[in-house]
From TrEMBL:
The lineage of its organism: Bacteria, Pseudomonadati, Pseudomonadota, Alphaproteobacteria, Acetobacterales. Keywords: Glycosyltransferase, Transferase. Residues 26-185 form the Glycosyltransferase 2-like domain. It comes from Acetobacter conturbans. InterPro entries: Glyco_trans_2-like (IPR001173), Nucleotide-diphossugar_trans (IPR029044). The keyword Glycosyltransferase applies. CDD domains: Glyco_tranf_GTA_type. It holds the Pfam family Glycos_transf_2. Belongs to the glycosyltransferase 2 family. This is Glycosyltransferase.
Length: 319
């Protein structure tokens, strides 16, 4: 990748000796989240054929943080990514893994603010073995850092699949396994750099993969937990997040569908919004829950309309 420079940091001899036997690479994009990263790495149960690769988007090594003990340092390899943005980090991690590990079967992504369940990796691989899918995704349980009136709208995940098996869309890039056989066939960067600031590189990748004939599968027991910060639990945070999501999803869809088809789907969502709200009232029977879900859905629809006009919001700035 033209603008990326890979720099190895603190590579352990065991890592080098195990390169030929490595079948799974757990990849963690990170940026200035040392304490969360330490918690994540300490919670990962990996076997002898698995490595952990941290893609650091900062110029300060994560090893410099005093919270990392020697045992934690031995568990992972760190590479530096100079190009800003999680899209660049994801692509660089994939490039590194495909280059360094000749017998690698899976690249598995988890975000630095998430914590996996004890059997997380095993559950992903079980579904991989059953389905022979190219991409496997699992649920991300959203836990609010504080209780707020609007928190339910930011943390509700009732839209996720329940059953194990094939799907036509996955949840997000933070709990995802990708077969290296599929990655080696690609004639493009897996994650589109055009979504680096807006977010949605994972959504676009899932659309591309499905349209390309890849098999996508869902592993409901491969759960990870993510603590949602308080700035996303406010009304403004909820609206901003939902609005930007609607924008980038429409922007991604415009690569594969006509504006007319997308417009009709947006209008269908708008017309069905009262029915969905009534359903939520019957299901939750709590005003704040229903109101926050209504705001999230309406903001997403408005964002989709903006996206159809080729407008976008920078969700991540320069980082």
């Amino acid at each position: 990748m033209a603008n990326n420079r890979l720099e190895m940091g603190y590579v352990r001899s065991k890592m080098i000796n195990d390169k030929k036997n490595t079948e799974i690479a757990i990849c963690i994009p990170t940026y200035k989240r040392y304490k969360l990263l330490k918690k994540l790495i300490s919670s990962i149960n990996k076997n002898e054929n698995t490595v952990i690769i941290v893609g650091n988007n900062d110029n300060v090594s994560v090893f410099e943080d005093h919270d990392f003990g020697e045992a934690d340092r031995e568990k992972f390899t760190e590479i530096f990514v100079t190009e800003r943005g999680v899209t660049a980090v994801r692509n660089t991690l994939i490039q590194y893994c495909l280059t360094e590990f000749v017998n690698l079967q899976w690249v598995v992504f988890i975000d630095d603010d998430q914590v996996p369940s004890p059997d997380w990796l095993q559950e992903l691989m079980k579904v991989a073995e059953k389905t022979k899918a190219d991409l496997i995704g699992g649920p991300v349980a959203k836990v609010p850092s504080i209780e707020t009136y609007w928190g339910e709208g930011a943390t509700n995940t009732s839209y996720l699949p329940v059953k194990e098996g094939y799907v036509d869309m996955l949840n997000e890039g933070g709990n995802l396994a990708i077969a290296t056989a599929f990655l080696r066939r690609l004639e493009r960067k897996p994650f589109d750099p055009n979504f680096g600031k807006s977010g949605g590189e994972d959504f676009e990748f899932f659309l591309f993969a499905f349209k390309s004939g890849a098999k996508l599968a869902w592993a409901p027991k491969a759960e990870v937990t993510e603590i949602i910060p308080k700035d996303r639990l406010t009304l403004s945070g909820l609206v901003f997040r939902s609005l930007s999501t609607g924008m980038y999803q429409t922007k991604a869809e415009m690569k594969y569908n006509t504006k007319k088809d997308i417009f009709y789907r947006i209008m269908k969502r708008l017309l069905l919004l009262p029915a969905y709200t009534a359903r939520d009232l019957l299901k939750y029977r709590r005003l704040n829950v229903c109101l926050s879900l209504f705001v999230r859905k309406l903001s997403s629809i408005v964002g989709a309309c903006f996206g159809l006009c080729d407008l976008s919001i920078s969700r991540y700035g320069q980082n």
